[in-house]
Specification:
Structural class: alpha/beta
Number of strands: 7
Strand content: 5-15%
Order of helices and strands: EHEEHHEHEHHEHEH
Number of domains: 1
CATH architecture: 3-Layer(aba) Sandwich
CATH class: Alpha Beta
Strand order of the largest sheet: 3-2-1-4-5-6-7
Number of helices: 8
CATH topology: Rossmann fold
Helix content: 40-55%
C-alpha cells in the first residue's frame, strides 16, 4: 500500500519530538508500517530524509514565542511537493486540524485520493499547552472550531478512544468515527486495525469512482 502521512512535526533526532506523544508515536507507527512492506511517505517540517518530504515552517506573528517555548512546530504546504507525493498514493493519513493538513486535504480531494484524519490533538491538550486548562468553555469552543474549519470536510475520523468519539458525537460531528487505540503497548494491534481501515476506505472510493 502507498500511504502518505501528513504531520507537522516528525523528527526523531529532535529531543522535543519524544515529548509530543502524537509525534513520537507517528515515528514508531511509520517504522512498523514499513516493516510490513508498505511504502510510507511522510510530509512534515524538519530535515529531509529518505521517505520524508520536508515542507516549510509556518510562522505565527503573535503567538510564535509561545509555540516555540512548547517546542512545537507547525508546517505550511508546498503544493508542488504535496502533489508529487500524492501522485500514485493509495490513501492520505492526516493527523492535525491545522493549516498543513487543511491544505493537503484540499489537494487530495482535487486529485481524487482518499483520506482519513486522526483526532490526536484534543482541546484538552491545546488548553493545557496554552495555559488555559481550567476554562471548560474554551475546550467546547475549540471542538466547534475544529469541526467547522477542518473535520466537517473529513468523512473518516480515527479516534484514539471511545471517550474521544463520544465527545465528537456530543459536539455534532457527523463524520464516520473509528476507534483505534494508539497506546504504546498495542502498536501491533493499532497498525493491524489501521491497515484494515485504510483498505476499507480505499475500496469505498474505488466503488464510488466506478458508479
Amino acid at each position: 500500500m502507498n500511504i502518505v502521512l501528513v504531520i507537522d512535526q516528525y523528527d526523531e533526532a529532535v529531543e522535543v519530538t519524544k515529548k509530543l506523544g502524537w509525534a513520537f508515536f507517528a515515528v514508531r507507527y511509520v517504522e512498523y508500517l514499513r516493516t510490513l512492506g508498505h511504502q510510507v511517505t511522510v510530509i512534515a517540517t524538519g530535515e529531509p530524509e529518505e521517505g520524508k518530504i520536508s515542507i516549510p515552517t509556518k510562522v505565527f506573528r503573535f503567538i510564535d514565542p509561545l509555540i516555540k517555548a512548547k517546542g512545537m512546530v507547525f508546517g505550511r504546504s508546498d503544493d508542488a511537493k504535496v502533489r508529487a507525493a500524492l501522485k500514485g498514493a493509495d490513501i492520505v493519513h492526516l493527523t492535525l486540524p491545522f493549516k498543513l493538513c487543511m491544505r493537503v486535504r484540499e489537494i487530495a480531494e482535487e486529485m481524487g485520493v482518499p483520506y482519513i484524519s486522526s483526532f490526536y490533538y484534543t482541546p484538552e491538550n491545546i488548553a493545557h499547552d496554552i495555559g488555559m486548562k481550567h476554562l471548560p468553555l474554551l475546550k467546547g469552543g475549540l471542538l466547534r472550531w475544529m469541526r467547522k474549519r477542518f473535520y466537517r470536510h473529513v468523512k473518516h475520523i480515527h479516534c484514539t478512544s471511545q471517550l474521544v468519539a463520544d465527545k465528537l458525537k456530543k459536539h455534532k460531528y457527523k463524520s464516520r468515527l473509528y476507534i483505534v487505540s494508539c497506546d504504546w503497548d498495542c502498536l501491533t494491534e493499532c497498525v493491524t486495525q489501521m491497515e484494515k481501515l485504510y483498505n476499507q476506505i480505499i475500496g469505498e472510493r474505488a466503488i464510488q469512482k466506478k458508479a
